[in-house]
Amino acid sequence: MSLKAWRDIATPHKDVLEGTFKQSEFAADITQVATGTAPEEYQDAEKFFARTYITEGMRLLLISVAQRLAGKGGDPVIQLQTAFGGGKTHTMLAVYHLASRKTSTDKLHGVPPLLDEAGVSELPSARVAVIDGINMAPSQQSVKKEGQIVSTLWGELAWQLLGDEGLAMVKESHLQGTSPGKQVLVELLKKAAPCVILVDELLAYIRQFELGKSYPAGTYDSNFSFIQALTEAMKAVPNAILLASLPESELEVGGSMGQQTLIALEKYFGRVESVWKPVGTEEAFEIVRRRLFESAGDRSEVEGVCRQFSEFYRQHAEKFPAETQSNEYFERLCRSYPIHPEVFDRLYEDWSTLEKFQRTRGVLQFMAIVIHQLWVTGNRDALIMPGSLPLEDSSVRDKSLHYLPQGWQPVIEREVDGPRSGALDLDKQIALFGGVQAARRAARTIFLGSAASNSVQAARGIKQERILLGAAQPAQSIGVFEDVLKRLRDRLHYLYSEQDRFWFDTKPNLRREMESRKQNINERDALIPLLKERTNRLMGRQHHFAGIHVFNTSSDVPDEYGIGPRLVVLPMDAAYSRTEANQAYKAAEEILRMRGEQPRQKQNRLIFLAADFDVVSRLKDQARTFLAWKSIVEDINNDILNQDLVHLRQAEQSSKAAESSLSQLIRETYKWLMAPAEEFVKGKPTLAWEVVQISTTTQNLVETIENKLREEEWLIYEWSPIFLRNILKQWYLKDGVNEVSALKVWQDSCHYLYLPRLVNDQVFKNAMNQGVASEDFFGYASGKEGDTYLGFTFGQGSIGGLDSEALFIEREAAKAYSDKLAAEAAQRAKVQEERRGDQSVPASIGEGASSTTGSSGLSAPVGGGLAGGSADQTEVANAIKKHFYGNVDLNPLKAKMDFATLVDEVVEQFTLRSGVEVKISVEIEATSADGFDEALQRTIKENCNVLKFSSSEFEGE
Description:
This protein is an alpha/beta fold. Strands 3-6-7-2-8 form a five-stranded parallel β-sheet, sandwiched between helices. A five-stranded mixed β-sheet has the order 13-14-17-18-19, with helices on both faces. A three-stranded antiparallel β-sheet has the order 10-12-11.
């Protein structure tokens, strides 16, 4: 359901809509009402109560007044003491209209139920005396219509209650400036009863008296004596009541004399008074709404909008204050509609602490201007929120500045709102922000929630959850406002933040200092080294690369086979761009083709990582920001820069935030993975680049790179022998060539870009081992002498090693050679069987046993025992030998060939016979006086693991 704008539901009063209201009209003046010169909405009792919301405090007070006037109890003296603008005078006006009975009570909105609750069926008409301390002076006399001269408080009271009769009762005291006694006042009140005495701004009057000095209005002491006598006399007259207002704020109290007077007044009123309950924040909702809005709108429409806000807060519960999750907050939204409760909370809780800000009156004046401006500009917000305040308007801005100390105007104009403000610039630059005015709404909310705070508070500013509450509307992305807060914090010069709190201050933060330092950072000496170090740090050490080379020149990138490929991180001036003028290709090709002045051989061992051209400038700017903040923190700690603790915390926090953003921006910048390849065009290899973008959101950068290389098959971690066979057929074993050096094939794969790029030689060896285990791919030999393959393997076993002697043998040739070996082995077996048969026949006397010599020079058995030997000799010769053990030392430089010979001449003698179990154990021992380096140890251990050694250890001694 779409949100309806507040202007489509609620209707402001005509004077608010047209902007014809007078701010002074919000300031009720009881003297004007008493003399009949007040604005109609205050003068006319019926209109006054129609626009007045009877608060809980006012309700209890009016009940007490009605009961007192009707002689049914009630409080004789009520003290009204609240903060500036807390509704004291407005309450007195309500009592005035109720008591004077110029309008029937049944026409006064909200009054009949109060009379019923008070148990008063007929409220008598009462005399009302209004003593306004602002309109009186100790040294001045008041001349009445009939020429009477009044100069004292008691004279004014007597004349207002009983005219000449009343003046006559206090004549002596009035002329001498001395207080009348309690009994005189009791008689006066009894004759005037039922009566109401309303005393406003009493402190403003009495503090004008100088101690020890006599005035026409009496002395300081005589006036206090009158107050004491009057409050005591009120108790003696059951249908007389006194309401007196006393200020609470220092602004109204004044100097030391005012403070002294207030203490004395509180003492006298405290003996008999009943303190009135001031206006609560919740009650202010209705007070403001009635005064400013003709109608809040249809109840169902109001609830519909408020329900969407309530559900929005519950959907994002972790982002908003806890109180928004209750149904009570939904009711608050409905009661305050079309103004968001957060506006009232900030004005009543924060701004009311300002000396110049009058609580209810100040809210009325401020919101009247705001509502008028929003109406004129066609504001379409669903509620009038802190983020809606049109501070760009001069009238709204000036009203805000009126309550604040000096220095806030440039803060609003340059930072918060207006045509030259930083918040507006941010909204214009980023469409995502501008679409919802995110920067301005957030800045306005921070201003409203923090401008009234001060530096002595333990926790300054407004929490982020309340900024979101005052700025975001249903269906808007919370993330946009969270992001804009970070941008504002990093951009504005008068905005501070600590943890999750934000506030504006008239004192500029360190951002201007930071901006100045940014401009002086040298790119070659400071910026590039920082980015190189941070990029290296992001890469880590757990990877399969032989090396990661960040911003290195071609001469600094080794040209080696290595234990893995090498990742080259190109410098920022060689960024990748989708345009034809791509600096990344040019820089990468220079490193690929040359190592310094020499041609590079192992070109297929290089992979490149390039920066995104569009992000490089942001990365450099962020790096400069971090370096600037870092230097500020260092200078403050070293007392080079004189700043307070708040600025130190800001610098430290900004430095950490800049560092975090820098790491993230490096990830966002270096996201183009480039792998060189060669394609054959007209029979000639031509360089081509394969480029892919890696994720910038994963935690481990180097792992992300390796995963992408594996996914794109630009780097092979596991290789099937079928692919190895295809490579052999395509490039090596063709045109009558039946064998090729295995080491050459591996090295060629490191040299040529048209061949597969393997992680390391172990992947190559694994493919070889898998290939020779089957007769489907190729054969292997550890060497060759003449036409004989040494260590030949085909269809079973594993390779002997990968060195300059190792050979790949074309499958058909390997099959033929294997068949040949099998035939030769079968022939030898046949000959040996025949010779064994000959050994079972006794040799002729004098004939000796003979043996034949094999091709290797080793003897093979061909004869049996000795003729004519003794019986014991015959038994020994004919004894069955069931076990054979052999031990031989091999020259390590010729071990491969010698071992192949041992297999052919000894081992095969056993393996070709059925029923013979053969076990071969190899023991290797190596010693070095200088010790073995870590690289060799790692290689040996890895190879031993692959070859399944039962034990293999390096020892210290």
